[in-house]
């Protein structure tokens, strides 16, 4: 660990670098902004500012010229002994060495934090650092209570947890021989809508659930095994556990954490031991106010509510505890909480650690090694602390604070005093002759009695003449003191403004009448001086909103804006139609899109091409690549890309941009390669094609002839019918008659008749 002297050297070095930055940043000097009229005001502007208390310094200048960077004051003639430039410092008051062993009779007097007491002298705005080492001594007693989620979703993780006790005991035995294990479990509140409440689910909440038909009744929290050094008991109790079932996804784990923290006698926490609470789950917890869904409006009281059966009896009476209440009770009982969760919940519980002091999170792997390593890591810690005074408290105020790592009894006591007064103020002279005997001479300047003003209090307020007024005009015809002040004793007294400070020999300047960007003065990247933005290094423009930094415009391939745009104010403006992205790297419709992505396909899938080097490929080709057997090209917005490989095969892939902003390449697993032509098959195909064409032509000819014949026959039949009709209905036409005579003999009425018949 670095010594306090080293820390002071680091702080001084940082201040020197900051001074150099302030001096070179486009001529901007915060110390000479015109706001300091006394030594104390100067020191509050910035930790790099210094004040010259030399009497002869700055004659003929404004009072603010005494406030500047230390090296600037010396260059301008101020002797070093008159420069007020306090810095923050650290004094170690108690620094007992860390104890090496904690077992036996010495465990109540062990030292686990170093140093134990320090004193800080802080200049406002000046950040200082000190080191703090925290280490569990060898054989220091450790109590570890394991809280396990027994909801149905944890059934696959039970095997991982069942072997954890033996592994924990084995690893912790390397650090301490005084180790105890305890065990408890939780599910959720046994009430609607958190659990199944119908009568058929009371004894078996898994009733009717085909995937897992049998489980134990739902419960909130159950303390199973008090802290014990018998590891076999721990393993035995864990082996007995069966999962239960609740209705919604979140669990009632925070109810269990609070009970495990406050039920000290039931759990068996030892006062002298280091307290670890491991919380294993695979889902999110219910939070405060969730209980109102079930009609629970009473907030949690933070008390222990374990009944005779060691079960949480207030589960159906009070709401879930809040994060603030959990943090308070864990700190109050010196408990270090470890979230051991599945991978998908890591980010959620990581956010919880920022809200609950003294907690950490780790992923619950199959072998639980990482959880064990996290517990061991929590056993030995060292870290650095930074302290900064933002302002000066009222005079005579003494302040102190303590630093107490969660899980430890020891603490670091820190006393603080503030360097808000200048040393030269201790020799201030009232009614000094330097100040015309009507003012106090302090740190090189006169503070005049009411009614008097001037560098030596030589003038009275209200005195006015044409000579004085002309001295208060910037030019003939201009307003007196620019209309923003009063002329008194040959100098302008500027008005106060709610918007900022008005200053200057003629009140012509202010620190608020400058260009803004999105409502922020000088875009927050510059200072307003006399109506003009003085931009910090790296920014330009009337309102300092334009960054000159171009590194953010460099694409992964090393080109500026991927060669498809221009870097303007630190951002790429894409000029290629269809290009977008932070560096114009995305452009599915650009002519070179397929060519650019082809190189990534070659190096990522086949380890070939120009980017085959692993480092180059991994750096430039970060797109997601999906391989498929059959490529679908109908996806909207996807561009189909093809290229010919060295062995005359064709590789196909599609390039698309998802709404999330991620580029996705979908490629065939292997290029498409066609075989050589078969001569016999070609011959047969040609002959078959000729025969087929002949048959088709013959069929067509036959069809045409048939249709033609039928049409001709139909015409013949029609003409014949018309002819018959005309012969039967023509009035000029008479049917020809033929007469034949036949001789016949016959008798009529008994008479003989002989004649001819007509």
TrEMBL record:
Residues 30-79 form the PSI domain. Integrin alpha-V/beta-5 (ITGAV:ITGB5) is a receptor for fibronectin. It recognizes the sequence R-G-D in its ligand. It comes from Sander lucioperca (Pike-perch). The lineage of its organism: Eukaryota, Metazoa, Chordata, Craniata, Vertebrata. Pfam families: EGF_2 (PF07974), EGF_integrin (PF23105), I-EGF_1 (PF18372), Integrin_b_cyt (PF08725), Integrin_B_tail (PF07965), Integrin_beta (PF00362), PSI_integrin (PF17205). Residues 594-678 form the Integrin beta subunit tail domain. One of its GO terms (cellular component) is focal adhesion. Heterodimer of an alpha and a beta subunit. Beta-5 (ITGB5) associates with alpha-V (ITGAV). Interacts with MYO10. Interacts with DAB2. Integrin ITGAV:ITGB5 interacts with FBLN5 (via N-terminus). ITGAV:ITGB5 interacts with CCN3. Interacts with tensin TNS3; TNS3 also interacts with PEAK1, thus acting as an adapter molecule to bridge the association of PEAK1 with ITGB5. It is found in: Cell membrane. This is Integrin beta. Disulfide bonds join 39-49, 42-78, 52-67, 206-215, 263-304, 392-641, 420-424, 443-481, 448-457, 459-472, 487-492, 489-522, 494-507, 509-514, 528-533, 530-561, 535-544, 567-572, 569-617, 574-584, 587-590, 594-603, 600-673, 621-649. Belongs to the integrin beta chain family. Gene3D superfamilies: 4.10.1240.30, Cytochrome c1, transmembrane anchor, C-terminal (1.20.5.100), Laminin (2.10.25.10), ligand-binding face of the semaphorins, domain 2 (3.30.1680.10), ntegrin, alpha v. Chain A, domain 3 (2.60.40.1510), von Willebrand factor, type A domain (3.40.50.410). PANTHER family: INTEGRIN BETA SUBUNIT (PTHR10082), INTEGRIN BETA-5 (PTHR10082:SF26). Residues 1-27 form the signal peptide. Keywords: Calcium, Cell adhesion, Cell membrane, Disulfide bond, EGF-like domain, Glycoprotein, Integrin, Magnesium, Membrane, Metal-binding, Phosphoprotein, Receptor, Repeat, Signal, Transmembrane, Transmembrane helix. It comes from the Eukaryota. One of its GO terms (molecular function) is integrin binding. The keyword GTP-binding does not apply. Residues 702-749 form the Integrin beta subunit cytoplasmic domain. One of its GO terms (biological process) is stress fiber assembly. InterPro entries: EGF_extracell, EGF_integrin_1, EGF_integrin_2, Integrin_beta_N, Integrin_bsu, Integrin_bsu_cyt_dom, Integrin_bsu_tail, Integrin_bsu_tail_dom_sf. The chain crosses the membrane at residues 679-705. Residues 38-422 form the Integrin beta subunit VWA domain. It is a single-pass type I membrane protein.
């Amino acid at each position: 660990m670095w010594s306090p002297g080293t820390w002071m050297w680091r702080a001084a070095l940082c201040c020197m670098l900051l001074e150099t930055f302030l001096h070179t940043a486009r001529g901007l000097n915060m110390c000479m902004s015109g706001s300091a009229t006394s030594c104390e005001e100067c020191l509050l502007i910035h930790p790099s500012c210094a004040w010259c208390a030399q009497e002869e310094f700055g004659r003929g200048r404004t009072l603010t010229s005494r406030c500047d960077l230390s090296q600037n004051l010396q260059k301008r003639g101020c002797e070093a002994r008159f420069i007020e430039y306090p810095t923050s410092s650290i004094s170690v008051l108690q620094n007992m060495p860390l104890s090496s062993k904690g077992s036996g009779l010495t465990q109540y007097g062990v030292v686990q934090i170093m140093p134990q007491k320090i004193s800080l002298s802080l200049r406002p705005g000046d950040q200082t650092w000190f080191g703090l080492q925290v280490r569990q001594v060898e054989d220091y007693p450790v109590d570890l209570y394991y809280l396990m989620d027994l909801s149905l979703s944890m059934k696959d993780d039970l095997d991982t947890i069942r072997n954890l006790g033996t592994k924990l005991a084995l690893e912790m035995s390397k650090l301490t021989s005084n180790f105890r294990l305890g065990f408890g479990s939780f599910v959720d509140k046994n009430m609607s809508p958190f659990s199944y409440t119908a009568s058929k689910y009371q004894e078996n909440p898994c009733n009717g659930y085909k995937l897992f038909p049998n489980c134990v009744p739902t419960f909130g929290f159950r303390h199973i095994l008090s802290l014990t050094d018998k590891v076999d008991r721990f393993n035995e109790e864990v082996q007995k556990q069966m999962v239960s079932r609740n209705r919604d996804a979140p669990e009632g784990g925070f109810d269990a954490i609070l009970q495990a923290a406050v039920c000290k006698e039931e759990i068996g926490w030892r006062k002298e031991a280091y307290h670890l609470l491991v919380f294993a789950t695979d889902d999110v917890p219910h939070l405060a106010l969730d209980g109102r869904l079930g009609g629970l409006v009473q907030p949690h009281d933070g008390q222990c509510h374990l009944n005779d059966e060691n079960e949480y009896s207030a589960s159906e009476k009070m709401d879930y505890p809040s994060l603030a209440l959990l943090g308070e009770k864990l700190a109050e009982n010196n408990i270090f909480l470890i979230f051991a969760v599945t991978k998908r919940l890591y980010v959620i519980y990581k956010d919880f650690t920022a809200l609950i002091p003294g907690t950490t999170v780790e992923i619950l792997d199959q072998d639980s090694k990482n959880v064990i390593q996290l517990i061991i890591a929590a056993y030995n810690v060292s870290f650095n602390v930074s302290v900064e005074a933002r302002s000066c408290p009222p005079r005579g105020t003494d302040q102190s604070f303590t630093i107490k790592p969660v899980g430890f009894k020891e603490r670091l006591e820190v006393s603080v005093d503030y360097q808000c007064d200048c040393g030269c103020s201790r020799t201030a002279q009232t009614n000094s002759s330097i100040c015309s005997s009507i003012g106090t001479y302090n740190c090189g300047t006169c503070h005049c009695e009411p009614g008097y003003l001037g560098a030596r209090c030589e003038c009275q307020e209200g005195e006015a003449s044409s000579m004085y007024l002309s001295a208060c005009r910037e030019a003939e015809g201009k307003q007196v003191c620019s209309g923003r002040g009063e002329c008194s004793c040959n100098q302008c007294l500027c008005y106060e403004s709610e918007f900022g400070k008005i200053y200057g020999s003629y009140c012509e300047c202010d620190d608020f009448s400058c260009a803004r960007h999105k409502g922020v003065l000088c875009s927050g990247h510059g200072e307003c001086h006399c109506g003009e933005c003085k931009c910090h290094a790296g920014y330009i423009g009337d309102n300092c909103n334009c960054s000159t930094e171009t590194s953010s415009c460099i694409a992964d391939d090393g080109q500026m804006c991927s060669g498809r745009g221009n870097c303007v104010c630190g951002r790429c403006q894409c000029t290629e139609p269809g290009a977008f992205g932070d560096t114009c790297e995305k452009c599915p419709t650009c002519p070179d899109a397929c060519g650019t992505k082809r190189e990534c396909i070659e190096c990522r899938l086949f380890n070939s091409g120009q980017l085959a080097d692993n480092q180059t490929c991994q750096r430039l080709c970060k797109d997601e690549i999906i391989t498929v057997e059959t490529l679908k090209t109908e996806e909207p917005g996807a561009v189909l890309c093809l290229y010919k490989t060295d062995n005359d095969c064709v590789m196909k892939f599609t390039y698309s941009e998802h709404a999330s902003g991620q580029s996705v390449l979908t490629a065939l697993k292997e290029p498409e390669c066609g075989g050589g032509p078969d001569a016999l098959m070609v011959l047969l195909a040609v002959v078959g094609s000729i025969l087929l064409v002949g048959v088709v032509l013959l069929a067509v000819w036959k069809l045409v002839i048939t249709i033609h014949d039928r049409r001709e026959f139909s015409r013949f039949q029609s003409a014949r019918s018309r002819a018959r009709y005309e012969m039967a209905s023509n009035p000029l036409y008479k049917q020809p008659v033929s007469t034949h005579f036949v001789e016949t003999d016959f008798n009529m009425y008994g008479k003989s008749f002989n004649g001819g018949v007509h």
